[in-house]
């Protein structure tokens, strides 16, 4: 009989349904806030983390500190490249009106909302870059390789060395110190970067110049 089939349809518990409704309501409110408040597309969290892409945004304080360091290191009229470090890019864009330019190299195409400053980047193809990114054309390159593996660091390092005039600011795990020295000649700073969600791995910054992060 047809009506017996209804018993086979899985039913969500009232608790699960309530949690789902709350989740969707929060999402709607968040979207509503974005449109009603003259939403700042450059604020950290405006594009949410995708953990499947190993994305973990910096805390506001850390992103601000790294952005400030990048501007100082780049100098007046400087060019800054952010490789897989979108929260630093976003903080740099909040410093609108200052004399520097910045590009974002990122695998996640959601960041294409940033227009011509967005460059699609896959670390597996480190030198597959558009012609407009000339070699050694950036005063500083900031990079945060998405994975704590030597392969990922080594390939990202190829991109960094191709783009930078000299200065490098690398953010990665403390466990990668030996590989960071080997592939980029950087040293660990005293400054400890924090993320908006606490990570299990200890994170550190590395530079190859006299920085304000010590």
TrEMBL record:
<keyword id="KW-0489">Methyltransferase</keyword>
<dbReference type="GO" id="GO:0005737">
    <property type="term" value="C:cytoplasm"/>
</dbReference>
<keyword id="KW-0963">Cytoplasm</keyword>
<protein>
    <submittedName>
        <fullName>EFMT1 methyltransferase</fullName>
    </submittedName>
</protein>
<dbReference type="InterPro" id="IPR019369">
    <property type="entry name" value="Efm5/EEF1AKMT1"/>
</dbReference>
<dbReference type="GO" id="GO:0003676">
    <property type="term" value="F:nucleic acid binding"/>
</dbReference>
<dbReference type="GO" id="GO:0032259">
    <property type="term" value="P:methylation"/>
</dbReference>
<dbReference type="Pfam" id="PF10237">
    <property type="entry name" value="N6-adenineMlase"/>
</dbReference>
<dbReference type="GO" id="GO:0016279">
    <property type="term" value="F:protein-lysine N-methyltransferase activity"/>
</dbReference>
<dbReference type="InterPro" id="IPR002052">
    <property type="entry name" value="DNA_methylase_N6_adenine_CS"/>
</dbReference>
<dbReference type="InterPro" id="IPR041370">
    <property type="entry name" value="Mlase_EEF1AKMT1/ZCCHC4"/>
</dbReference>
<keyword id="KW-0808">Transferase</keyword>
